[in-house]
Amino acid sequence: MSTSSDWIARGEKHVMKNYGRYPLVAGRGEGCRLWDVEGRSYLDFLAGVAVNNLGHCHPAVVASLREQAGQLLHCSNYFHIPAQIELAEMLCEHSFGDRVFFCNSGAEANEAAMKMVRKYSRDSGSGKRFEVITALASFHGRTIGTISATGQEKVRDGFEPVVPGFKYVPFGDLQALRGAISSDTCAVMLEPVQGEGGVNLPPAGYLRAVRELCDEHGLLLVFDEVQVGCGRTGDLFAYQHDGVAPDIMTLAKALGGGPPIGAMIAREEVAASFGPGTHGSTFGGNPLVAAAGVATMKVLTETDILENCRQMGTYLRQALEVLQQRHCFIREVRGRGLILGMELDIEGAEIVRKALDRGLLINCTVGKVLRFLPPLVVSRAEIDEAMEILDGVLKDIS
Ligand code: PLP
């Protein structure tokens, strides 16, 4: 059997070096635990960056994949795909949306949304408007289009010229948003809670005011729920917390319970802009991933997993606040449901590394914000265990 060092040495030779990887070679996972190839156990409070919301290898997802794999792995979108239809039905039943386009990732879902807002502008007779206003500290993906939409310079650095037609305004600043609207603007795209940007919540009432501003100016409102959708915040979709429906919502990450899937959901009138030939994706909503999506949505909507997310979210938040009392370099604890951030006065990289050495997986965004994204099935005992590890690491650091 190859050891972790063997794998790491082999990976060093031929795998592209675009990720700064930790020295963990993933072997298998179950619930909130991940084991490396040598059998060492880790408590996973990163969950594949908000993908494994149901925990690793949820039995319902695994069973649906097994069953579908024995029937049909792939089929072109030239034909009708039952699992895809079922998943679209479930997404529309549980959201503001009427129609769903399926793709393979968050970036692709956002690309689809950005094409749709331009096309809708033309179709609805409001001229060739193309500009999209997004937020500073946002993150929308790594394609040329989505780095252009992303309000973080470091993501665009080295890849210029980016796609024109994006303006960035501070997240939560309504006046700045109002001031950025021009005769070219066709849409506003926001994460209801910013993930990569440091777990940033908007001020109360902000999303509603943005909705009203969009209506006033005839702009489409796009919510990127790639990271915070699918139960992460304690609601099935994060927008439901504020009761503010967008015109378009993008999903990916947790939607398939592990397998890669993305989705763009839109209101009927807006969705009408995507007629035959306007957009597509070979693998989008293929039978295998769509079956996993159906199983995932069933768990999210038919079990008490969202309630557990809310309860454990409160429990974890309180536990993090206890740590805040103990360690003077912890500036703030914030978040909603089970996306929680701990802002530090110091860099977080060493803490992440030391936590990993002691068997806890977390990560750090924007340098100083530790991010906690455990599976939504996490238990009190697992949170207690994680907090004991983290407290030990924080003591070491101070
Ligand atoms: N949008 C948000 C809010 C994200 O957090 C991410 C990834 O972290 C993306 C889009 C891009 O998703 P993907 O990596 O699946 O392309």
Describe the protein in words.
- The structure is a single chain.
- The chain has 15 helices and 15 strands.
- The chain is α/β, with parallel strands linked by helices and 398 residues long.
- It folds into two domains: 4-58 and 304-397, Aspartate Aminotransferase, domain 1 (Alpha-Beta Complex); 72-302, Type I PLP-dependent aspartate aminotransferase-like (Major domain) (Aspartate Aminotransferase, domain 2, 3-Layer(aba) Sandwich).
- Strands 4-10-9-8-7-5-6 form a seven-stranded mixed β-sheet, with helices on both faces. Strands 1-2-3-13 form a four-stranded mixed β-sheet.
- The site of pyridoxal-5'-phosphate has 15 residues, from helix 5.
Question: Low-confidence segments, ≥5 residues, pLDDT <50?
Answer: none
- What kind of sheet is the major sheet? 7 strands, mixed
Q: Identify the bound ligands.
A: pyridoxal-5'-phosphate
Ends distance: 40 Å
Strands across the major sheet, in which order? 4-10-9-8-7-5-6
Which CATH C-level class of the largest domain is it? Alpha Beta
- What is the CATH fold-level name of the largest domain? Aspartate Aminotransferase, domain 2
Query: What oligomeric assembly is this protein in?
Result: single chain
Number of domains: 2
CATH homolog superfamily of the largest domain: Type I PLP-dependent aspartate aminotransferase-like (Major domain)
Q: How much strand?
A: 15-25%
- How many individual β-strands? 15
Gross geometry = globular
Helix percent reads 25-40%
- What is the CATH architecture descriptor of the largest domain? 3-Layer(aba) Sandwich
Number of helices: 15
Q: What does the radius of gyration come to?
A: 21 Å
Which H/E pattern describes the elements? HEEEHHHEHEHHEHEHEHEEHHHEEHEEEH
The SS-based structural class is alpha/beta
What's the pLDDT, averaged over the residues?
Answer: 98
